[in-house]
Amino acid sequence: MKTSTQQYVELPRIKRAKNSWERKVIHYLVTHPSGKSSPELAMEAIASYWLIEALENNVAHEEIIIASRNANEKLEAKVAIIRKIVGLQTTIDSPYTYIKNEPNIYVELPRIKKIKDSWSGKVIQYLLKHPSGTLSTDLAMDAIVYYWLVEALENNVERSELVKASRMATEMLEAKLATITRMLGIQAPQPTSLSEPTASYVVNVMEQESDVGVDEDKDEQDEDEDEDEDWSDFLDDQTRMLANVLGG
Fold first, then answer.
1. Measuring CA to CA, which residue among 44, 21, 40 is closest to residue 109?
2. Average of pLDDT values for 59-71?
3. According to the model, what pLDDT value does residue 8 have?
């Protein structure tokens, strides 16, 4: 009996200098307080950031809609977290403050291995064959940094650096949200204008009211004509004959 085997796709390990923001993010993921593995946390960022572009024209529209909701929720939540952190950060207690004078030591994010047909697997395939020709590790690192940078720097750098990082991360995440919106063709609502069904209803009501007015005028005219035609019915024969003679 044949057994089906899952096909996997891998994103290479990522190596970055210790003095860089990227290194600080990798170190944060490797030592994340949640206990989750660094590849898992990295993939959360990569998938949220690149998923819709990876699925575009490759899956049914219904799946794109579901994926976009998932990505939007994660990116919007991350932007909210960044703004909250920047608003609350007041103290500094960090080993990173003194990294500037240390040798350029490197840290690594382990390779990420995912099932080929999964959303994560499709994202990795997209990055490996990105039309820009950019290295997949660089594209992945972009997403990881924008997604995790502010949390990695929180309470670990001067406030001015944290603010600078938050601006960069927020701008890039919001730009990605705008890209997802454009790709799906979502248009912002127009609360000041009437929708087509409402406008049609208003026009129909006005036409009906106009028709009613015309009908009422016509009915009144018909009644007047009827009165003009029927007045002779109330005259006796002699008076009617006199009226005819005078009228002739």
1. 40
2. 91
3. 92
- What's the predicted TM-score (pTM) here? 0.66
Dihedral sign, Cα of residue 134, residue 138, residue 140, residue 143: negative
The amino acid occupying position 238 is Q
The alpha carbon torsion through 49, 42, 135, 143 (nearest 10 deg) reads 30
Report yes or no: 163 and 75 within 8 Å, Cβ to Cβ. Answer: no
Q: Is the pLDDT of residue 36 over 50?
A: yes
pLDDT tens digits for range 199-234: 444 445 444 544 545 455 555 555 554 444 444 454
DSSP state letter for 113: E
Neighbours of 128 (CB within 10 A): 16
- For residue 115, give the amino acid letter: I
Asked if 126 and 114 count as a contact pair (C-beta separation under 8 A), the reply is: no
End-to-end CA distance of the chain: 116
Spatial CB neighbours of 152, under 8 Å, sequence gap ≥ 6: 21, 24, 25, 27, 28, 29
> Phi, psi at residue 247, to the nearest 5°?
-70, -30
- Tokens 């990116």 identify what position? 75
